[in-house]
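Problem 12. The chain below contains 139 residues. Write out its predicted structure in token notation.
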Amino acid sequence: MKRSRELQGFLDAIRRGQEQVLGDLSMTLCDPFAINFLATSALKLVNHQLEREQMPRDNAVLHLLLRMLALGLSAWSLIETQEFAEPRLDPGLVTRFVPALMSLAVDDQVYYRYQLREEPGVNIIFSVKRWKTGFVPNK
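Solution.
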């Protein structure tokens, strides 16, 4: 948490004349391993929020991860245009998309728990494959 505040302070403190630092940072963040790390961390944080029954818009670390992910994904356009401005994060991402993603995760958890309760001893892999293909046995 402390490191995330430091990094957020660093991003917020970039002033006029120092915009090229954004270009360097964006090129570092556009590495596939960095993008994978940021996306995986964001999804883990969303799952953690889900377990604690909290909304994603209240989590500053998630906002920072999404800001860094957006910066990494826009690296090539920053370098090509030489206009070093941090891309604005779409508010709908945190207010609509991430809650919808959490809703899907809750639906999956409820479905898996229902399947395990209804059919004890059923292989979970078979259950997931059956659910994805849409096969529902007659009861």
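Discussion. DSSP finds seven helices and no strands in the chain. Students who got a different answer should revisit the alignment rule from Section 12.3.
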